[in-house]
């Protein structure tokens, strides 16, 4: 089978996804990154749609790429108007690209209902638009919109549309599952038929409304498509386009097809996170191949087998796509989870199983009380270090008082007064905050800063409270999960109590203790107490 081209439409169809938008600068950065990865095409936008896309094409015009061709998107000419006077086609020409991708209707129903024209005029729109762009020297890809729905409804007409594009000189015809509802077996049958009926190279453009876009794209390749169109992270209209971060490793590792150079796949996870960062979207943890959970192992049985051979629970090595294996600890852990973490944390020579078992039982008891270590790797590491390395927190709370006061203006303020033992010194501090936890955080920082100035870099990223037994009303036990970061790394810590201040204190104290521990380990000069 010939090499498969990857056509990225993150910057066009991806931005049709809810909440996804890129600035011109972002679009340029993403184009460069995709080129470096080895993508064959980057669809930069629709010049006839908006000034931002026009500006993108203006700025990118003189850039030289290693191999990516930048494509401009647009529709076929308007009904009843000559192609050489169609604003949209002229905008594609003016964008300065060498590759145009135009979409046209291939479902008779759409021709009547959406375009409001005749079947004959639509065929002419397709042929004229392709021929016009070809006559101006462009490479032309024709996206047959709704092809599979069209084929189901009126196969003769759907095929006539493809032939119109082919006969007008299209360099490729792309079969679009625009509504994303086609099932893989049917899709493969249709692509197989089209492959035999036409000469022009075929591509696939699948949407994910049935959750089948990846399967559909791979089967389309099996049936003869040589181009896969999709987006990074599957962004796109409604449920999105096919996720190229899923399709590419499947093509490379499973189908052994030449596509993106295999050695570049180690940058795939980074690429996915880079694009989600620019799109300002949280990464999807369960995303295949590149998600943080894609190689996260929780069940004891799994981790036990994984220690014997990673292939028992991993379909590919995580490093091959630049991802990482993670072992989670929880009440579902077995000894193996603990052994794995003990080794990962580099806590010393192997222990006998009774020693691991003791801590495992402690961990399970704590989880039964409401602690959750899966999201609190900082607290878990402190627990392990205390058990196996005699670790002690660098400070100890002697007393704490929290005052909450309604002041004249009707606002409620809190003040925390704490007495802390740091090494052999007693430190008294007080601080105000907009609530008791905020005041406690401020008082703790004030007390520790003098000894560990480096904690000034630590920021609270997230503070979550979960009521564990809501039937108890205001007397319920709560779990507090805190996420802290120092600009380079972030860590989670946990506290549980029927008193929200106490639970918050436990999580806060762990978060500072863990931060200081890591800074000391990394040799931060002012992480050492004087
Ligand atoms: C399957 C896809 O994802 S295709 C890509 C869809 N993406 C987008 O729509 C995003 C960019 N779109 C836009 O910026 C705007 O919709 C524009 C600039 C393209 C058009 O805006 P307007 O001129 O205001 O028209 P509007 O969006 O209301 O309607 C679209 C028109 O295009 C026509 N049209 C739709 N598909 C095609 C086609 N393949 N060929 C020719 N005309 C088409 C419609 O019939 C409609 O014409 P009408 O106004 O005569 O009814
Ligand atoms: C062309 C396109 O984006 C689609 O049919 O989904």
What does this molecule look like?
This protein is of the alpha/beta class. It has 3 domains: 5-260, Aldolase class I (TIM Barrel, Alpha-Beta Barrel); 296-388, no CATH class; 395-527, Alpha-isopropylmalate synthase LeuA, regulatory domain (Double Stranded RNA Binding Domain). Helix content is 39%, strand content 20%. It contains 17 helices and 16 strands. The protein has helices at residues 24-37, 51-60, 87-94, 108-115, 119-135, 147-153, 155-167, 184-197, 213-222, 244-254, 268-279, 300-308, 335-344, 353-369, 377-389, 436-449, 500-521, and strands at 5-8, 41-45, 69-75, 99-105, 139-145, 172-177, 202-206, 227-230, 296-297, 326-327, 395-406, 412-422, 425-433, 459-467, 478-485, 490-497. An 8-stranded parallel barrel has the order 1-2-3-4-5-6-7-8, surrounded by 9 helices. A 3-stranded antiparallel beta sheet has the order 11-12-13, covered by helices on one side. Strands 14-15-16 form a 3-stranded antiparallel beta sheet. β3 (69-75), α3 (87-94) and β4 (99-105) form a beta-alpha-beta unit. The longest helix has 22 residues, at 500-521. It is elongated and about 85 Å long. It starts with a strand and ends in a 9-residue tail after the last helix. The model has no long low-confidence stretch (mean pLDDT 95). Bound molecules: acetyl coenzyme *A and pyruvic acid. Residues 4-272 form the Pyruvate carboxyltransferase domain. One of its GO terms (molecular function) is (R)-citramalate synthase activity. It catalyses: pyruvate + acetyl-CoA + H2O = (3R)-citramalate + CoA + H(+). It holds the Pfam family HMGL-like. This is Citramalate synthase.
